Amino acid sequence: MKDVFLDLISQHQGLIHKICKLYRDGKEDRQDLFQEIVYQLWKSYPQFRQESSVTTWMYRVALNTALSSFRKQKPPVSYTDSLPDTEAGYPEEEGQEEQLFRALKHLKDGEKAIVSLFLEDMSYREMAEILGISENNVGVRINRIKSKLKEIIKELSYGS
């Protein structure tokens, strides 16, 4: 059982890393979250009945772990946290991936979950199963999030 589990983690560690990058800023925080997700996956592995795909199960556990630990450790927000500038560690010119992840930090937790699944090329059906919402609702939320991200990226790029 241990070897099969370790193979699963090895094969799908990319999805865990995406969740960690989406919900944590610092390298050490991401590493801590990664370890916590793997621990939660290990604890729940004996109950995994393969009624859904492995990635669906892993995403569900990873997102729940990230969200629950995020709520426990969420520091108070100061007004300066929402005002990124070049002196705060955001270079004026950055790669598209980094720009996207910076914009994703401005989304609500549920929106981040949907985006992470969308970026993983999951079907609306799979996303609905993981999130516990209808496929139609997934489509509506994705369209709203896309519009919101366009505005966030525009504001971050032009400072308006």
From TrEMBL:
Region (Disordered): 74-94
Domain RNA polymerase sigma factor 70 region 4 type intervals: 98-149
Limits of the RNA polymerase sigma-70 region domain: 8-74
Statement: the UniProt record of this protein carries the keyword Transcription regulation: yes
Keywords tagged on the record: Sigma factor, Transcription, Transcription regulation
The family this protein is said to belong to: Belongs to the sigma-70 factor family. ECF subfamily.
Entry protein name: RNA polymerase sigma factor
Species assigned in the record: Pontibacter locisalis
